[in-house]
Amino acid sequence: MNNKIAALKKEFPALGSSFSGKRMVYLDSACTVLKLRCAADAQRRHMLELGGCGGKRSFHALAAAMEENFSAARSRVASFMGAGTPEEIIFCAGVTDAVNLLANSFPFTPKRNEVVLSPVEHNAVFLPFERLASAGKVKLRVVPLKGFKPDLEAYAEILGPRTALVCLTHASNIFGGRMELSAAADLAHAAGAYLFSDDAQYAPTHGGSGALYGADACAFSGHKLGAPYSTGALFVKRELLGRLRPWRVGGGTIEDVSVSDGRYKVKYLGNYQAFEAGVQNCSGAAGLAAALDRLENCGFENIRAHVSCLVDDALKKLAGIKGVRVLGGREDLLEGSLISIVPEKKGFSIPDFNLYLNHQLKGRFIALRTGRHCADLACLSSGYRETIRISFFAYNTSEDTAVFVQALKKYLSLLK
Q1: How confident is the model at residue 257, as a pLDDT?
Q2: Is the pLDDT of residue 56 over 80?
Q3: For the range 67-70, what are the long-range contacts, defined as Cβ-Cβ under 8 Å and sequence gap of 24 or more?
Q4: In angstroms, how far is CA 348 from the centroid of its own chain?
Q5: Residue 52's CB: how many other CB atoms inside 10 A?
Q6: How many CA atoms lie within 13 A of 271 on its CB side?
Q7: Of 21, 165, 178, 281, which one's alpha carbon is 20 to 30 angstroms from that of 146?
Q8: Distance from C-alpha of 10 to C-alpha of 16, rounded to nearest angstrom
Q9: Starting at the edge strand that comes first in sequence, how are the strands of the sheet with 232-236 ordered?
Q10: pLDDT class for 59, splitting at 50, 70, 90?
């Protein structure tokens, strides 16, 4: 662990937490990263020292300070995502919120109403479009799975003149690794379609977003990189942003309301302003900006190298254990931050194993994720109903993996 990673690890107070007298081994960062002290401090400071009316509603000194802070956070996020301008950034409560906004604002037409989904999309991406499909507003097409990744040859054949939007996660939350976004974006654009990238699993350990690889829209969640809950952002390239229809409207989204011939006429603001209805999570944005500052101070190249080493170490420790199998290949997994494991030994119960990790280890418990991981498309496409997922961030160590592997071996030894 290099000095910058070691220093960053000290910024996560929850690592020292114990529950019912047991110390925590945290291997659930794909679900949510533990929270940075600097992010919590920035949010608290904003709430206590500012906490007034922002959003360009009032024009007193406190409101001006609120707006200045919020604008600085937008610029910070724009820089992180690789946006051409801060006006391409829409603050959201996370990827789920962002995709609901995009799905309901997207300019589908009768001639272009097909949405192509990768088979590893999170439900946050799948469900908003499935709801539109159920209402007869769009048609869904899902790319086949090949080697735990989307089949790019089949993807190229699916694209056509009716394809309006392609959704491709940048890094899978169930099978790990990362996707070849540039190639997928080129194919989508050649077909006249737009491409959306879910960066929730990519941004925390790589830095940046799909905007750097040709995505027309992309989103990330702040809680997955140590920032406050209900923070995140949606990037939309200016050309597409100008075509979106405001969906969630209210205070702060309009330029003018008039009456003509007995009817109201509403003129909406341009860029992000038409999509940030109501008072925004300004304190959360301050915490998000602080988290990005701290992670970039550490260096995403250092975070990426550290996490790749942890994945490599885990694969070596898991190799040769009879009774379980790792999904995916080593080279692919090294590009991500997680490993999914499925049992092969008779009598192995994933829910029971999870209980074992929480209640049967002496002096410790292991926090990880089991189940379908909100990745139902991936489970249906692969035939795996559930997996055991261990995931890493900058604060993890080889010892964390060793504790898990020891517990796994012990559990396997208890099975008849």
Answers
A1: 93
A2: no
A3: 69/282, 69/285, 69/286, 70/280, 70/282, 70/285, 70/286
A4: 31
A5: 15
A6: 9
A7: 165
A8: 10
A9: 89-91, 232-236, 217-221, 194-198, 163-169, 114-117, 139-142
A10: confident
Write the Ramachandran bin of 329: left for phi over 0, alpha for psi from -120 to 50, otherwise beta: beta
Q: What is the CA radius of gyration of the chain?
A: 22
What type of residue sits at position 65? A
H-only helix segments in 120-256: 123-134, 152-158, 181-190, 203-206, 238-241
Quickly state the pLDDT bin for 54 (edges 50, 70, 90). confident
DSSP state, residue 344: -
Q: Please give the structure tokens belonging to residue 20.
A: 């019912």
CATH architecture of structural domain 3-35+299-414: Alpha-Beta Complex (3.90)
Give SS3 for 101.
helix
Map out the domains of the chain as residue ranges.
3-35+299-414, 39-296
Which pLDDT belongs to residue 1? 74
Q: Considering the domain delimited by 39-296, tell me its CATH architecture.
A: 3-Layer(aba) Sandwich (3.40)
Evaluate whether 120 touches 150 at the Cβ level (below 8 Å). Answer: yes
Position 58 scores a pLDDT of 81
DSSP notation for 216-282 = SEEEEEGGGGTSPTT-EEEEE-HHHHTTPPP-S--TTSEEEEEEETTEEEEEEPSGGGGT--SS--H
Q: Tell me the percentage of the chain whose pLDDT exceeds 70.
A: 100
User: 109: pLDDT confidence band, cut at 50, 70 and 90?
Assistant: very high
Could you read off the pLDDT of 317-363 as tens digits, one per residue? 999 899 999 999 999 999 999 999 999 999 999 999 999 999 999 99
Residue 108 burial (CB count, 10 A)? 17
- CA dist list (Å): 185 to 13, 132, 218: 40, 23, 12
Query: Is 168 exposed, middle or buried (CB count within 10 Å of its CB: 0-12, 13-18, 19+)?
Result: buried
Three-state DSSP state, 18: strand
H/E element, 335: none
| Amino acid identity, position 151 | D
Distances (CA, A) of 105 to 37, 243, 249, 271, 396: 36, 9, 11, 13, 39
